[in-house]
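Hi F.,

I've been meaning to write this up properly since the lab meeting, where we talked about keeping a consistent format for the predictions we share between groups. The idea is simple: the sequence comes first, exactly as it goes in, then the C-alpha cells exactly as they come out, then a line or two of notes. No screenshots and no reformatting. I'm using this chain as the first example so we have something concrete to point to.
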Amino acid sequence: MTRLRSVFCLLIFALLSPALWAQKAAEWKKNGEKAFANGRWADALALLSQYQQEKPGDPAVLTKLGIVHYHLHQAGKARQFLEYVAKQNPGSQDADLFLYLARTLHGQQEFERAIPAYKSFLRVCGEKHPLRAGVADHIRRCVSGMAIRSNDKVALVENLGDRVNTPGDEFAPLLSPNYTNRLYFSAAREGTDGGRRNDAGLADSVAGRWCSDMFFTNQTTSGWDYAVPLGSLLNTPRHEVALSFAGKGQVLFYFRGFTLYSGDIFADTAGRKDEYAVTPPAFVSPMKAEEGDGNPFFFNDTTLIFSSRRAGGQGGLDLYITTFSDSAWTEPRNLGPAINSPYDEVTPFLARDGRTLYFSSNRTESIGGLDVFKTIFEDDKLAWQAPLNLGTPVNSPGDDAWFSLAADGRMAFFSSDRLDSYGERDLYIVYFKEQMAEQGRTSQPPSFLEAERLAATAKKSDTGIQSAMIPSLFYHSDQDVLSPDNLKIIEAAAALARQLPQAKVAVTCHTDETGAAKFDLYYGIKRAEMVGRALTDLGVSAGRVSLFSCGPNYPLVRTIVDATPNPAAAAMNRRIEISLVAIGEKLPVEVSVQRPEVSELMAAPGAKFFDENIRGVSFRVEVATTRQILTNDALAMFSDLMIETQPGAGSYRYTAGLFKQFDKAVQLRNDLQKQGFAEATAIACIEGIRIPKAEAVGLLKKYPDLAPYIRG
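Output, unedited:
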C-alpha cells in the first residue's frame, strides 16, 4: 500500500511539474521586465537569463538581455545578443533592437557599422519618436569619429581601478590643491547616505537611484587606494557633489539637493571654528542651482565659469562667466558663439595661463556624447580659437567630462561612461608625454577677461589724444619675473619708450610680506634689475631707467578680508609696474599702468596712497648708499622704505618716507640723523623720479612746490 502511494505521488508530481515550472518562468519574465523598466540592470539580467534558459528563443527577451548587457558595460555580450536577434528577424519593427545595436557598435568605435544600424532605427521608429532627432545627430558624430585621430600628446589613459570605481556612478574628479596625491570625487553607488531616491527626491527602493556622496582617494605606491567618504557633516541623505576649491584649499564649494538638478551650493570653510554650525553658509552668486545652473569652476578665486540654460544663450547648456567686483559678483556673461553651440557645453576648466579653456560638449563634432574640447584665447585678436576636439584616447563614444589638468600639467583627470568602465561613469587619468605648457605659466594680464578689458595696448581717447596702457607684471617667484608673457609686456613697453625718447622709465617692484622688510626690499630691487636689464637689452638707454623696490609697503589688495586670510593677496601684491613719465613737458601719449580690477572690499589703501603721493612733486629722505643689502635694523622703525638704483649702477640708495610737503621730509631727515644716519638728506621727485637741485630750479615755474627744497 505504501509503495502504491509513493508511485501515485511521483506520477502526480510528474504531471504537475511542467505547469509549476511554466508558472515559475512566467514570474521570472514578469519580474525581470519590471526590473528592466526600473533600470535595475543586474536584477533584470539574473531574472531574464533564468527565463531564457527555461524558455529559449524569445526575441523580445533576447533583445532585453542585449540591452541589459549594454547598460552593464558588457559590450561583447550585448552585441552577441542584438546581432543574433537582428539577423534572425531582418524585418523586425523593434526600434530598441536597432537603437541599442547601433549604440553598442558606436561605443566600440565601429563607426561605419553603427551608421546602418542607426538608419534601421530611423526606418522603424516613426516620425514622432522622441529619440529620432538625437539619432540623426549620432550619425553625424559617427562621421566625426571616422575623421578624428588619436592625440599624439597623450601617452596613456587609464581607469583609476576598482578600489575607486564601482558598478555605480563615479564622476566630478577634483584635485586637492594641498595634497598632490589626493583626489576628491562624487559617486552615486551602493551604500551612500541617501539610499535610493526617485526623481522627486523621495526614498524609493524599487525605482530609485542611489544618492551621490563626496569621497576622496589617495595615490600610493601600489595605485589609487580605496575611496573614503568625507563624513556625516558633509554627506547627508541628500545628493552632495564636490565642485571646487578656493582660498588655497581652505574652502570647499559643494552642491546639495534632493535631486542632482535642483538644490543649493555651499561653501565649507576648513578654518571655521563654529563647532555648533551644522550647515555651512550658502554660496551667494548669480548661479541658480535650483534652476539647473551647475558645473562651476573658480579661477583665482575671483572668476567663476559655469553652465546654464538661461534665456538668451546659444542653445542647450551654455558656458557663462562672472567676476567678483565691488563686494558682489557681476551679471553673468555668455561666452559667446565661438565657444557655445546649439548643443550642451559643460564642465569648464581654465588653465593656469588664463587663456586655455577646456570644456565638454555633445555638439556633432564630438565622436559620441560629451567630448572634451580645447580652445585658446588670442590676446592680439581678442578672440577664441575654434574649439579643438582632444581626440582619442581622451574622448570616446561615451560621455567624457569634468576634464581638469593637474598642477604640474603632466596629468589630467576626467569621468567617462565608455563601455570599458566598471559601471555608469568611472574616473580616468590621462598621462601626457610632456608637460602641458598652459599649466606651467601665468599670463599678464592673469586671465582673458583682463585682456578683453585692455582691448588694445594703445587706442584713441575721446579727446583725440593717443593713450597707452602697460599691464602690470605679476610673478610668483624670481623665475617668473621674465616669463614669456611678462617678456611680451616688457617688449611692448620698450617699443613705446623708444617711440617717446623724452620719457623717463620707472620700474617699481612690489611684493607681499614674506619676512623681514630688509629682505623683501632687497629681493625686490633684484627683480627690478632683471626688468631693467631686459629694457636696456631692448634698446632703452640705462640713463632713462630708474628702478625701485617698495617691498610690501603699498599692497594692491588686503591680506585679511572679514577676519579671514585673503588667498588672492600674494598673487595680486607681487607685481612689477613699468611707467613712462616726462619731466617738465607733456607726452604726446597718455601712458598709464594697467592693474586688474579690485573690488572695494578687497582693495588695500597702500596702492592708492602710493599713486596719490608720487604724483607730481613728492619728497623722500635718502638714508644711505650701499653696494649690498643694508642690514641696520634701525630702519625698520621708519615707514615707506624704498630702494632706488639704475641698470648697471652697482649701488643702492635707501630712502624713507613719501611726502607731499618738504617740511615733513626735513623732520624725518632730522630723526634719521639722530638715529645715526648722519648722511641722511631730503630729496625731491617728480612723478617718482629724483630731481637734482640744479634741474629743480628750471622747473620751479611749473612745479612751485619745489621752492622749499631749492631754498633748503
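Notes:
The chain is about 30% helix and 30% strand.
The chain has three domains: 57-146, 154-271+279-436, 456-711.

If this format works for you, I'll send the rest the same way.

G.
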